[in-house]
Amino acid sequence: MIDLEKDIEEKLNNLSDEFINLLRKNNLLNQFLRNFITNIICSKVDLKINVENLNKDFCMKNNLLDEKALLQNLSFRGINMDDHMRNLENTEKIKLIASQEFSKNAETEFINTKTLLDQYTYSLITVKDSDLAHELYLQIDSKEAEFSELASNYSLEGNTNKSGIIGPQSIGNVHPLLKEKLLTAKKNELLNPFQVDKWWVILRLEDKIEAKLDDSLRSKITLSLFDKWVNILTINSSKRLMENTTKEVT
Questions:
Q1: R_g (Cα) of the chain, nearest Å
Q2: Tens digits of residue pLDDT in 3-50
Q3: 8-state DSSP, 118
Q4: CB of 17 within 8 A of CB of 250?
Q5: Strand order in the sheet with 119-127
Q6: Which neighbouring-strand residues pair with 208?
Q7: For 139-174, what is the HEC assignment?
Q8: Alpha carbon 54 to chain centroid distance?
Q9: DSSP element (H, E) containing 101
Q10: What is the pLDDT of residue 216?
Q11: 186: which DSSP letter?
Q12: How big is the CA angle at 141 (ends 136 and 145), to the nearest 5 degrees?
């Protein structure tokens, strides 16, 4: 957007040092800046939106049966009806801005993050003893016992209430070694026991669902890119404010 950063800087200059210092001391500066900058961005978009329908959807999703319940909800969140309506409008504007500004980058982002978007289902047993891990592995490999049965009986950590089955889920937050094993495993492959920290792990990849760049995922990616953009603007603005207030104090 043309001159956006200049506009942000000009509006921030209107804020008093006392107010900025108050936000900073209460660890609220970046949170404020993020909302402040998002509102500035949305104010530059002229979009006809049926806010009443958005409000009805909001009330249904939050089980707010009448206006009194809605007003109580807004009061609890520290906003009034005008703020609420603007927030609903901004939600739709953000979707439009994200699509217009970042749709062209969605495919590249998808390729770069695909391994974190794929959905994995796997069976997992974790024990503390190496000999036990290898014994259980041999029982499963020779089909003497079912993976799920051994997981329920022996696994000390993990999703044991589902007989060792985990997923489908992304593997972005799993242990790096476990992630490495899953990325290279074949479907239904039972891997030799390996150690992860203090645990011995028996792992079998059950299924892998490849992520596809459909409209829904494209929308999620563009919104993610919008968030990253606002984060950068927030960090830059925070640095400028901190530098300016520090200079004036000295």
A1: 25
A2: 788 899 899 989 999 999 999 999 999 999 999 999 999 999 999 899
A3: S
A4: no
A5: 165-169, 119-127, 199-209, 190-196
A6: 120
A7: HHHCCCCCHHHHHHHHCCCCCHHHCCEEEEECCCCC
A8: 23
A9: helix 81-102
A10: 93
A11: P
A12: 60
